[in-house]
């Protein structure tokens, strides 16, 4: 009897092993439609083409919010007229606003925009990491108009989770920068 009990105990403890089973990493596959663009028609001193997936709302002083409900994100555009010598301070403020996210960002990449035919000059900032915003930009004609934009998701920053949406919306922001036109 004693030997049977001993054999059962050995079998019991031998069966309790902690073998590690490696599982393939699962990735959420988020797919968005191919973007289709149309003119925003916002009746402001600037205009641009926006993704049909986004909903435009014009606020006071020609500030524009483009909401992307499928991605739970909003692109906030702020319009500021250039007057006197405030262009330098507007450029410094736009850069400071971007680099304030440096504490949480893993990297910030700058991509300049120069379109001398349409008088559009600016900078696109791609912010990687768990910062509050993943993309910011500004464009100006250097004389009368200045538009600044910031992309925010309505969720706690988790770069890995929002990465597909970030990449999709970065292309939308670049398209806005490429199609912006100033009212004369």
Supply the number of helical segments.
Answer: 3
Main β-sheet description: 7 strands, antiparallel
From the helix content, strand content and strand pairing, which structural class follows? alpha+beta
**Which value, in Å, is the CA radius of gyration?**
25 Å
* Strand arrangement, major sheet: 4-5-6-10-9-8-7
- Topology pattern, helix = H, strand = E: HEEEEEEHEEEEHE
Mean pLDDT metric: 87
Number of strands: 11
Runs with pLDDT <50, length 5+? none
Tell me, briefly, the overall form. Answer: elongated
For the termini, the CA-CA separation is 101 Å
The helicity comes to 25-40%
State which percent range the strand residues make up.
Answer: 35-45%
Q: Overview of this structure, please?
A:
The strands form three sheets. Strands 4-5-6-10-9-8-7 form a seven-stranded antiparallel sheet, sandwiched between helices. The protein has a two-stranded antiparallel ribbon with strand order 1-3. It has helices at residues 2-14, 87-99, 159-179; strands at residues 37-39, 46-47, 49-51, 55-58, 64-68, 73-81, 105-115, 120-129, 133-140, 145-153, 181-182. The chain has 184 residues and is α+β, with helices and mostly antiparallel strands. A hairpin with a 4-residue loop joins strand 5 (64-68) and strand 6. The protein is built from three helices and eleven strands.
């Amino acid at each position: 009897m004693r030997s049977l009990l001993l054999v059962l105990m050995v079998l019991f403890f031998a069966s309790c092993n902690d073998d590690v089973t490696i599982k393939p990493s699962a990735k959420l596959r988020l797919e968005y439609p191919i973007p289709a663009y149309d003119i925003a028609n916002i009746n402001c001193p600037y205009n641009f083409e926006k993704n049909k997936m986004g909903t435009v709302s014009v606020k006071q002083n020609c500030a524009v919010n483009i909401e992307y409900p499928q991605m739970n994100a909003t692109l906030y555009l702020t319009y500021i007229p250039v007057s006197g010598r405030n262009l330098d301070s507007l450029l410094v403020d736009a850069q400071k606003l971007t680099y304030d996210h440096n504490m949480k960002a893993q990297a910030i990449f700058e991509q300049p925009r120069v379109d001398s035919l349409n008088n559009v000059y600016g900078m696109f900032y791609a912010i990687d990491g768990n910062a509050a915003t993943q993309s910011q930009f500004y464009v100006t004609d250097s004389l009368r108009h200045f538009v600044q934009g910031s992309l925010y998701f309505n969720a706690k920053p988790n770069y890995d989770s929002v990465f597909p949406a970030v990449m999709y919306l970065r292309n939308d922001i670049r398209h806005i920068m490429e199609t912006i036109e100033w009212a004369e």
